[in-house]
Specification:
With 75 residues, the protein is mainly alpha-helical. The protein has 5 helices and no strands.
Length: 75
Amino acid sequence: MPDAQPKWIRLACQQQGDRIREAREHANLSQEKLAEKAELGRSTIQRIEAGAGIKYVHLLVIARALDVPLAELVQ
């Protein structure tokens, strides 16, 4: 069964997950610590960093928890 999303969307989700992981690592936070700061589950952070896509509200709380501009995570 083919993927439901076009390849360019999957690629964009992976790139966004990579940017979030890089920002988290730059802040010296584990996935667990970022999840606590963002009030999300660690498994949610793990899925986002793996490129599974992200809800806008999660993006907002992650940007705030990392103290980075939202635009930095969605370039």
